[in-house]
Amino acid sequence: MSEFDVGRSKRAREAFSLDDIAVVPSRRTRDAEDVNLNWQIDAYQFEHPIISAPMDSIASPESVVTISNLGGLAVLDVEGLWTRYEDPSEAYQQIRSKLHDNSVLQKFYSKDIQEALIIQRIEFLKSAGVTVAVALSPERTLQFHSLMSKAGVDIFVIRGTTLSAEHVSTKSQTLNLKELIYEIDAPVIAGGVASYKAALHLMRAGAAGVLVGFGGGASHTSTDVLGLRVPMATAISDVAAARREYLDESGGRYVHVIADGSMGKSGDMVKALACGADAVMVGSPLARATDAPGLGFHWGREATHSTLPRGQVVEFGTVGTLAEILRGPSRVADGTMNLVGAVAKSISLCGYTDLKEFQRVEIIAS
Amino acid sequence: MSEFDVGRSKRAREAFSLDDIAVVPSRRTRDAEDVNLNWQIDAYQFEHPIISAPMDSIASPESVVTISNLGGLAVLDVEGLWTRYEDPSEAYQQIRSKLHDNSVLQKFYSKDIQEALIIQRIEFLKSAGVTVAVALSPERTLQFHSLMSKAGVDIFVIRGTTLSAEHVSTKSQTLNLKELIYEIDAPVIAGGVASYKAALHLMRAGAAGVLVGFGGGASHTSTDVLGLRVPMATAISDVAAARREYLDESGGRYVHVIADGSMGKSGDMVKALACGADAVMVGSPLARATDAPGLGFHWGREATHSTLPRGQVVEFGTVGTLAEILRGPSRVADGTMNLVGAVAKSISLCGYTDLKEFQRVEIIAS
Amino acid sequence: MSEFDVGRSKRAREAFSLDDIAVVPSRRTRDAEDVNLNWQIDAYQFEHPIISAPMDSIASPESVVTISNLGGLAVLDVEGLWTRYEDPSEAYQQIRSKLHDNSVLQKFYSKDIQEALIIQRIEFLKSAGVTVAVALSPERTLQFHSLMSKAGVDIFVIRGTTLSAEHVSTKSQTLNLKELIYEIDAPVIAGGVASYKAALHLMRAGAAGVLVGFGGGASHTSTDVLGLRVPMATAISDVAAARREYLDESGGRYVHVIADGSMGKSGDMVKALACGADAVMVGSPLARATDAPGLGFHWGREATHSTLPRGQVVEFGTVGTLAEILRGPSRVADGTMNLVGAVAKSISLCGYTDLKEFQRVEIIAS
Amino acid sequence: MSEFDVGRSKRAREAFSLDDIAVVPSRRTRDAEDVNLNWQIDAYQFEHPIISAPMDSIASPESVVTISNLGGLAVLDVEGLWTRYEDPSEAYQQIRSKLHDNSVLQKFYSKDIQEALIIQRIEFLKSAGVTVAVALSPERTLQFHSLMSKAGVDIFVIRGTTLSAEHVSTKSQTLNLKELIYEIDAPVIAGGVASYKAALHLMRAGAAGVLVGFGGGASHTSTDVLGLRVPMATAISDVAAARREYLDESGGRYVHVIADGSMGKSGDMVKALACGADAVMVGSPLARATDAPGLGFHWGREATHSTLPRGQVVEFGTVGTLAEILRGPSRVADGTMNLVGAVAKSISLCGYTDLKEFQRVEIIAS
User: How many CB pairs (< 8 A) connect B and D?
Assistant: First the structure.
């Protein structure tokens, strides 16, 4: 960790984004077909390490089934439009028509969440036979988790802008993640975190996976609004070091490092894996799907905050189906199609055969 | 302080702007409601550390009262339009209509300042019951300060592009800040400064607060015109070191470090506080208010200089009321609304409870 | 090689692109006419070191003859349009009309390569009396090389995105470059490589020249799609070190280092030579020729990939004839005309007399 | 001088442009009126250190007189339009109408230079009573210098893209600058140079002043065309070190360091002086004058080269008269007016009183 003086009374650590780095091919090459992209967390196996983020722009009950059937883990937001509205199509339509005004988002997301709809959405996923993964905010986890466990959720994702194992509050009940994770009888993926220490605490609290980054489509605006920034290459590498530390201190418990956000192109996902991520959670690349519910529009939950929204509705347009975006074939050359194929190709050009090995690949910065 | 060779006969110090750095959340998080943003200078207490700059685009007697009632310190420029014109509305209108030509500014600001108007404006503020803070240029402080003290000014701000405790002149009377501050029977905030030494001298001269930076809306053009630049992150950190040094040598006198300029978004204010500022003086964020006198147009006093103007009239447009900009709720995601809420939120995500503690937060540079 | 921590578990090497560096004139100057630009590989001599890339946008049988007659080495792609179509003019026309959609390229390049056309194109070049150089992909070299040897090819170029001397495959026959080069009774130029080790292995496998970089017009998109990047200044310098190592271990065999790609202007070529390249292979500069088959449009073979295209058709427009672009006179000031004259001028201003000497010139980075 | 590895076989020096640096005000401030900007070379005294470059866009015989009368040194190009045409107004008009095509420049500058016109232009300047300074290319100095000496030239400027004291040629007569300068019975300013060694050689050859940089309006395109770049902050500092070295070895001969090019704004001139320049030669800032012959259009001599032009005609538009641009008052805030006033103001804010002292000012880089 190289540090330097910002001034006479403050030091800063040098940190790197994914744009700052790149992978360099090593001397041996392989066939992309020989690369094994399998990823497994707890008892759940997936054909590739690209997880779809719990964002309403990409995750409807239907699209979650589609993405799951394409071999990946797909997460539904149970605090989004689908549990507030029986039929959210009116909300989707109005959100798409008001790009630069967060008050429309604020309005539609102020409606109460209905327990009946939560159960209905989970049952839909269960009946489709896919791994049922849902996302909750830290604030609502206490309220809803037992309901969901009963409904049959396989994987819980607790996801906030910054999640800590030690949230302190004088007014609300303090969230004790350790007790909570112990109570939840399912693997918990928790985040976002941006540092070694924060990650290590989540691991000690029992998380099966740790989300690195802010995710939620707000990574660009978090700096503008909050002055916070997660340089992803550095953060992933730090959290990967926490994984190794915890692996040792726990006597062999391997907690997954999942990069979350700031990865708009397949090349970014390759870089995240190269920095030590076990899997990547992506939003905007899937928002370009013709069969994603946002129809080319994209937003995150932070953008719906009632008093301090971060991020807004962005129009990406569409490039192809979820199947084409994830598995190809690609018709474009900008890293937005055939994400799985691109990851396999890159790993093969560097001469590696699986994700874990690839974490050792050489990288450059410039 | 890392230095390097620019060439064989010149060394330069590496310096950082606020854009170069960001805050990194630490492991503990808190509720934003539990963050105490109180700021106090001398006997004057404020609910938050955001000071409105003495610029005609944002500070009329009326808006100063509004901003004060929203919990902050607001400063009136007593060398601006409001002390040159009984009714400056014609000046405001023409300035807004001639964006790129400083000669309109030069014309309206060449009118003489009227002592009667100074007194009238101060009395207006006094009668509104707010803390009366006025700004003078170094050149005119000698001329006007006793008049103002009598009129009841609470806080004096002496603000120039670069203020030194030792201005040397062969023609005009040399400004002896130390004697002057001793004479003024009120706390004096003085600046701008950009270095440890300059700040330490102002502290020794008796300043209650030191302004760091050029402020005045001209920070971008100072480099073009004068070749000068204040890298704010470095400057704040340097002046914070001077604060510590002076605290020791004075046996406990705490001089406030106030970042002035280069902070257009709430995230920038967070970074300035993280670098060691006790408070921030802002202009452009408030120029976006529908109830600021500039109505979305913004300019600083340097832009009115008769022979070497720096900065010009900029049209920002409006985003909301002063109340919404300062206290929220925000409807946008770009750091221009709910400034106080954003600062509290960021401090809470990093696990701190007050401004002084937050100066220790970890930062990264990239 | 300076390395630093990206994070707690990953280090990166600092790497430089050609844009990051520049040549600095040394104290002596010369006449450009006194600079000797001759370049020789194996028994083949050329008047200058600028090689035209095997890309359909610039290399038709006719333009290969033109470029050869202007003193340089020109390479024909024998897996491109000219060996798939007796008359490819319809393909050229449609490709030019569909700029941003790689599916047109994918369609035209999916047609089978015809052996008869390979022979016909080679015979055309032979009858024109020029050095016959053809490019093959690593995958097809085994299939076609003996046919081509018989047809009279002088120089073979084996060119892929990343070529290794040790490609490992479980499904197809593993390409053993060493045996293959031994079999081919002609000098083989092979690449691209991006590292010291990869280059050294190709040299040991018998390559007469090594291509540094990805070439193929896809250098920009390789980062987007694959996360790979070749910082050319660093890569050339690394491969030049491999040349010196191999020169020693082989007891005097000098393998040519050929920069391939990322050189759009004559100044870029100068920088590549300054970093240690013996010659440069260029595409886009020649795509601006009125007598290039692409008529101002440019694309590489990677852009035609059936499932994961990289790079697309780019419209550059035309600036002059191949003769004017290569040998001048120039009518423009952007480094796109009189490439040979610019290289000579630059070498002369730095006081050197030939290409080999010029590899010692001082460079700066900023 | 910090150096680093570009790759395994090449090192580069870190170098800085004027944009990379800025001046930081020191603790003392002064009145701008107390700053002495006088500059003297040999027996010739000037009121300020801003020299107008020998470029046809800014220097006609008339404008040279105007600029001289405003207190500065103005140089006429005796190889430009004014010595090729009795009345160059037709050339000026056509050049202005064909912005992006260097062939118009090439045409008008291919006409022969007439000795009679050289004498006529010099006599015009002499009769106006100004310091007569003319610029020659290295190639033509031998041919014309005695003619000009007789005609009464006070200061000679020998200016080429890169000038060396040791130009080597097999075909033309080698230019021996040392003998030539000895022969010329007037102070010679020579350049451009970009390095310590090249500057030291020119000093030893007898130059009274050394031009640092490429000048001529082609600094941006030299990198594109030739791969050359002069990072001005580093180059000025290096040449200032050569000045000190030569001052010692010559026993007290002070050779002036004149920054030439890359200074479009007054702030850039301040930075150049801060890096160690004694004076600055500028082109583009004066091309914005309503009474400059280019009428807002600007080009350098390199742009007229018959086979390898660098730089082109650029339209800047006009901002004011030469008097306003040089001496103010300014009506704009972008560093293009009141250049002399801006330099004085900046020096005063940093607390210095003359140009030589100001070379010690602190700078930062970011």
Answer: 199
Q: Which two tokens stand for residue A317?
A: 């347009």
State ipTM: 0.91
What letter does residue B355 receive in the DSSP assignment? H
Closest CA to D163 of D128, D199, D133: D199
pLDDT in tens, C180-227: 899 998 999 999 898 999 999 999 999 999 999 876 555 567 888 999
**B102 contact A CB<8A:** no
Q: Test B333 with A309 for CB contact under 8 angstroms.
A: yes
Phi first, then psi, for residue A336 (nearest 5°) are: -105, 0
Chains that touch B (3 or more CB pairs under 8 A): A, D
Collapsing DSSP to helix, strand or coil, B36 comes out as strand
Please determine, for residue A230, whether its predicted confidence score (pLDDT) is greater than 90: no
The superfamily in CATH containing domain C16-365 is Aldolase class I (3.20.20.70)
- Bridge partners (DSSP) listed for residue D257: D210
pLDDT at position D145 over 90: no
Judging contact as 3 or more Cβ pairs under 8 Å, the answer for C and D is: yes
- CA gap D160, D207 in Å, rounded: 14
What strands lie across the sheet with C209-212, from one edge to the other?
C50-52, C279-282, C256-260, C209-212, C188-193, C155-159, C133-136, C75-77
Rounded to two decimals, what is the model's pTM?
0.93
Q: Are D213 and D262 in contact (CB under 8 A)?
A: yes
Q: Which of B172, B307, B308 sits opposite D31 (nearest CB)?
A: B172
Q: Just give the CATH number of A14-365.
A: 3.20.20.70
Residues in chain B with CB shorter than 8 Å from the CB of A228 are: 22-25, 267, 270, 346, 349
Any CB–CB contact under 8 A between A111 and chain B?
A: no
Whole-number Å distance between alpha carbons of C11 and C240: 24
CATH for D15-365, options being 3.40.50.2000, 3.40.50.720, 3.20.20.70, 3.40.50.1820: 3.20.20.70
| Cβ pair C23:D103 closer than 8 A | no
Task: Confirm if A70 and A292 have CB atoms less than 8 A apart.
Answer: no
**Which stretches of chain B score pLDDT less than 70?**
1, 26-27, 166, 169, 171-174, 215-220
Look at B167 and D27 and tell me if their CB atoms are within 8 Å.
Answer: no
Q: CB-CB: which of B166, B169, B230 is closest to D31? A: B169
Question: Chain D neighbours among C 251-270 (CB < 8 Å)?
Answer: 265-270
- Touching subunits for chain D (3+ Cβ pairs under 8 A): B, C
- The shortest C-alpha distance from B202 to chain D (Å) reads 10
Is A364 within 8 Å of C229 (Cβ atoms)? Answer: yes
Q: Output the CA angle D236-D242-D247, nearest 5 degrees.
A: 125
- Scanning chain D, the segments in alpha helix (DSSP H) are 61-69, 89-97, 102-108, 115-128, 138-151, 177-183, 196-204, 219-226, 232-249, 266-274, 284-287, 322-327, 339-349, 355-358
Q: Does D248 touch chain B (CB under 8 A)?
A: no
Q: Which of D118, D125, D129 is nearest to D61 (CA)?
A: D125
* Domains of chain A, residue spans: 14-365
Decide if D2 touches B, using CB distance below 8 A: yes
Size of interface A-B (CB pairs under 8 A): 200
Superfamily (CATH H level) for B32-365: Aldolase class I (3.20.20.70)
Tell whether B361 is within 8 A of chain D (Cβ): no
